[in-house]
Amino acid sequence: MSDLFEFVLRLGDDALVAAQRLAEWTSRAPEMEEDVALANIALDQLGAARLLLSYAGELEGAGRDEDALAYLRGDREFRNCLLVELPNGDFAVTMAKLFLLAAYQRIRYDRLVTSTDERLAAIAAKARKESAYHVDHAALWVRRLGDGTEESHRRMQAAVDEVWPYTHELFTTDESAARLAEQGVAAAPSTLRDEWLGAVEPVLATATLTRPADGWAPGGGREGVHTEHLSYLLAEMQVLHRAHPGARW
Amino acid sequence: MSERTDLSPLWEVFVRARRGLSHNHVGSLHAPDAELALRNARDLYTRRQEGVSIWVVPAGAITASSPDEKDAFFDPAADKVYRHPTFYEVPDGVAHL
What pTM was estimated for this model as a whole? Predict the structure, then answer.
């Protein structure tokens, strides 16, 4: 399995699973306008996932297209980070997940624009504008809830505390990622964390939230070792394609 | 949902398209403040197109002319021809008028 295929799959799976989780909010958001905003972000993530998974399929050269990669892989074959597969929880948990993920995606795509891989650079150029909007939107809610009522502050702090450990995985550099960095295709994940902290910490401070301490750092998503949540998510997402494999829609 | 009206008042949205000359009223929405009203308007009415200008105004800040008074309001102009520029004859040879 080539390093580039692996990398594109990881990015694509992050976007795909994040889109699936956000779509679960449809018609259940606290406000009608927020409902539209979450659906918008889900659609952006899905769009990025399609571009990335299509490209991954081409890189693999085994005849798998975006649909085959999305619908016909088991959880052990998914390469998304654990952060995106966590349940939505309350609105605060969803915003914490989205904020921390989108801040990472924006930096990731920003750097990829100058990648030596032209296709990846083109996908990143499109996706980074969307990511900027996602960060903006989630940051607004993190501040609003953190600096809102006593109850919303409590929930927002609990949400950040809950998902913070899962962000470490975003910045773990394994051998495959290290080789890609050497080739100038994609910066090593570990080199992105300072910039990410620079984007995330001021928002938490403005929101009167305490930045959680670094400690427990669950991982495994990049190797296909997921939490118990992913297989349920996939069962729902893939049910139709599993029942009617090869069907066209 | 009377509770919602307090938390999220009504906003009127005006959009000027990328190549448009003026802002046009496109609709309204509920939002807790101007910042969120702007973001919601971007999603609801512009599909986040680039180069679009959006104005949001709290509906309470708009004063409208009253339909009941419309005769008194708009009538005086109709029967006074000197109020219309067409009353004046344009001399021959005047260009760009």
Answer: 0.88
Terminal-to-terminal C-alpha distance of chain B: 55
pLDDT in tens, A13-42: 999 999 999 999 999 999 888 999 999 999
| ipTM of predicted assembly, 2 dp | 0.73
Q: A136 to chain B: which residues are within 8 Å by CB? A: 39
* Residues of chain B numbered 17-36 and touching chain A (CB < 8 Å): 29-31, 35-36
| Interchain proximity B30–A32, CB inside 8 Å | yes
* Sequence ranges of the domains in chain B: 10-64
Query: Which two three-digit tokens encode residue A82?
Result: 């654990």
Fold of the CATH domain B10-64? Ubiquitin-like (UB roll) (3.10.20)
Q: How far apart are CA B35 and CA B31, in angstroms?
A: 9
Topology (CATH) of A3-209+219-243:
Ferritin (1.20.1260)
The per-residue b/e assignment along A157-177, b for 16 or more CB within 10 angstroms, e otherwise, is: bebbebbbbbbbbbbbeeebb
Judging contacts by C-beta atoms under 8 Å, the chain B residues touching residue A138 are none
Shortest CA distance to B7 belongs to which of B29, B24, B26, B30?
B30
| Tens-place pLDDT, residues A164-201 | 999 999 999 999 999 999 999 999 999 999 999 999 99
Distances (CA, A) of B64 to A56, B59, B61, B77: 57, 10, 10, 19
* DSSP 8-state assignment for residue B45: I
Write the DSSP string, A218-238. ---GGGT---THHHHHHHHHH
Domain boundaries, given as residue ranges, for chain A: 3-209+219-243
Contact B8 A36 (CB under 8 A): no
Block mean pLDDT (10 aa), chain B, length 97:
63 93 94 91 86 94 83 66 68 78
